Amino acid sequence: MPDILFLGTGASLPSRERAPSCVAVRLKRDIALFDCGEGSQRQMMLSPFSFMRVACILITHMHGDHVFGLPGIIQTMSMSGRKEPLTVCGPEGIRDYLDAVLSICEGSICYQLDVVEALPGREIEFKEFSVSVFGTDHVVPSLGYVLRGHDSKGRFDRNKAISLGLSPGPDFSRLKGGETVCGVRPESVIEPPVKGFSVAYSGDTSPCEGLELAAAGADVLIHEATYADSEKEMAAKFKHSTSVQAAEAAKKIGCRHLFITHVSNRYDDRKVLEAEARAVFPNTDLAEDLRLFSATKDGIRSA
Ligand SMILES: [Zn+2]
Ligand SMILES: [Zn+2]
């Protein structure tokens, strides 16, 4: 089950309380970062997560509040002796951006850096999870991501198998391999596979069908809510979402938990947006910097 750590929950500008966009999802030992705003590496240093365990950085779009932390963390990983490859995925422009910054600023990267300019529909496999890419609707080309942990095998009921007359050893191996043994079908002693946990991330977007389709059935949705419900026109103009629109998306995709993030600095009391979203989708939390949540089979718990 994954842990979700909010590293930066601000919108556009950093503030004393909030860094720009960055969310870490940890599955087993591997971490995926959604976006990498300025200061993300330092936020990680203040958290229990190690940035050396980051397997991929998934950038939604080329606005500074989502990418200005990227070259820094890439360079620090190199200076810290990273050996494992790192994948950076993003829209068109991500390669030119990194090539420019990393070539102009002195210092070589001593590990394999795989930069992927992805289109919606792309699937990328990692050791502990897969990532699917979908298109979103912002003022520049923009992507969202669904991270899915791999399905795990169902539990084998050893005692039941023995009570049905089977013996540990070859009988068990054949059952686990899908064979019916002495009239006992595998499904009568092996529980169904457990679906991998999934987390969908919107990046910056107006309400969009692409997200609703790609993220359908995700366990957790992390959705931007730049504006309060009273500022729908502003949200539409700048292609962002309101608190209520984020909650409506959560309802449509049928997730278990919604986090709203990227709330504008204009709101002194961000809890108002949380309340608006909860009125539509009760299982909503407002994301705050350095808050860590753990997924359990009973739901999402603040760690
Ligand atoms: Zn933004
Ligand atoms: Zn943006």
Amino- and carboxy-terminal Cα gap: 13 Å
**CATH homologous superfamily grouping:** Ribonuclease Z/Hydroxyacylglutathione hydrolase-like
The appropriate CATH architecture is 4-Layer Sandwich
Uncertain stretches: none
Number of domains: 1
Summed over residues and divided by their number, the pLDDT gives a mean of 95
Q: Helix amount, in percent?
A: 25-40%
**Tally of extended strands?**
15
- Percent of residues in beta strands? 15-25%
> What is the number of helical segments per DSSP (H or I, 4+ residues)?
10
- In CATH's first tier, which class applies? Alpha Beta
Label the overall shape: globular
Record the strand order, biggest sheet.
6-5-4-3-2-1-14-15
CATH T-level topology? Metallo-beta-lactamase, Chain A
- Name the hetero compounds present: zinc ion
Reported for the largest beta sheet, the result is: 8 strands, mixed
Topology as H/E string?
EEEHEHHEHEEEEHHEHEHHEHEEE
From the helix content, strand content and strand pairing, which structural class follows? Answer: alpha/beta
**Rg for CA atoms:** 21 Å
What's this, in brief?
This protein is an alpha/beta fold and 303 residues long.
Characterize the structure shown.
With 303 residues, the chain is an alpha/beta fold. It has one domain: Ribonuclease Z/Hydroxyacylglutathione hydrolase-like (Metallo-beta-lactamase, Chain A, 4-Layer Sandwich). 25% of the residues lie in helices and 25% in strands. It is built from 10 helices and 15 strands. An 8-stranded mixed β-sheet has the order 6-5-4-3-2-1-14-15. It has a 7-stranded mixed β-sheet with strand order 7-8-9-10-11-12-13. A hairpin with a 7-residue loop joins strand 8 (129-135) and strand 9 (143-149). The radius of gyration is 21 Å and the shape is globular. The two termini are 13 Å apart. The mean pLDDT is 95. Bound molecules: zinc ion (2 copies). One zinc ion binds next to helix 2.
